Amino acid sequence: MKTYSLGEFEEIVLLTVGVLYDEAYGVAIKDTIEERAKRKVSVGALQSALKRLEKKGYLESREGEANAQRGGKPKRYYTITAFGKLALQQNRDIRNTLWESIPKLALDFKFS
């Protein structure tokens, strides 16, 4: 079986693109990650991850309409590819298998 590797941040970015669906562009992705994951995201780190995911074939991008509000520059929208979906499914399956394999006692902590 072919493996589709994803780093933690790449997985979060890919999942966020899925959440945003047709509205997945840089600022929206950044804002959604910061809101939902409660972590700061630099524009540079996000752009690097988006480029890596596109290079791996997990994302595709397209340019939207240019508008005056953005100085005539169009937004770049991202969508998950079939390979991206496989990567997400494989990561989820691996995590679920690991979670299910942890003995109950191993996570039975008592906090004082």
Short synopsis of the structure:
By secondary structure, this protein is of the alpha+beta class. Helices cover 53% and strands 13% of the residues. The radius of gyration is 17 Å and the shape is globular.
List keywords for this structure.
2 strands, alpha+beta, 112 residues, 53% helix, two-stranded antiparallel sheet, Arc Repressor Mutant, subunit A
Plain-language structure description:
There is one protein chain. The protein is an alpha+beta fold. The protein is built from 4 helices and 2 strands, in the order H-H-H-E-E-H. It has a single domain (8-104), classed as Arc Repressor Mutant, subunit A (Orthogonal Bundle). 53% of the residues lie in helices and 13% in strands. Strand 1 (59-66) and strand 2 form a beta hairpin. The model has no long low-confidence stretch (mean pLDDT 92).
Major sheet details? 2 strands, antiparallel
Number of domains: 1
Q: What is the CATH homologous superfamily assignment?
A: Winged helix-like DNA-binding domain superfamily/Winged helix DNA-binding domain
Distance between the termini: 45 Å
Arrangement of strands in the largest sheet: 1-2
How many strands appear in the DSSP assignment? 2
CATH architecture verdict:
Orthogonal Bundle
Name the helix and strand elements from N-terminus to C-terminus, one letter apiece: HHHEEH
What's the shape?
globular
The assigned structural class equals alpha+beta
For this structure, the CATH topology is: Arc Repressor Mutant, subunit A
Radius of gyration: 17 Å
Q: Calculate the mean pLDDT score and round it.
A: 92
Low-confidence stretches: none
**How many H/I helices?**
4
Helix content: 40-55%
Strand content: 5-15%
**Would you state the CATH class?**
Mainly Alpha
